[in-house]
Write a structure and sequence with these properties.
Length: 94
């Protein structure tokens, strides 16, 4: 993975995180949300004694996007939040 692709992955992960956060809020509050409101640290969730990144957080989305790209399932421009949901269902995170 080169630097150009890495930057594109970071931007896509940020877009997905913002979209996910907006889906949790009411319409009035969702209009106020932008990329500045997404934390860059890594929130965790625990399941069966194992720590997982929250899939829709910035780092979690970035990791799943990388997995989708390495498996050659979709090009980067076509990855959406629904593709992340499908990728999660086949893992121990679900």
């Amino acid at each position: 993975m080169n630097r150009r692709l890495s930057k594109r992955i970071n931007k896509k992960a940020l877009e997905i995180s913002v979209e996910w956060l907006k889906s949790l809020l009411s319409d009035a509050e969702a209009a106020k949300v932008n990329a500045k409101h997404i934390p860059r640290d890594n929130p965790y969730t625990f399941k069966n004694g194992t720590a997982f990144s929250i899939p829709y957080s910035y780092r979690g989305a970035k990791a799943i996007i990388k997995k989708i790209l390495t498996r050659k399932q979709l090009p980067l421009d076509l990855i959406t939040i629904h593709d992340i949901e499908k990728a999660i269902k086949g893992t121990p995170r679900s």
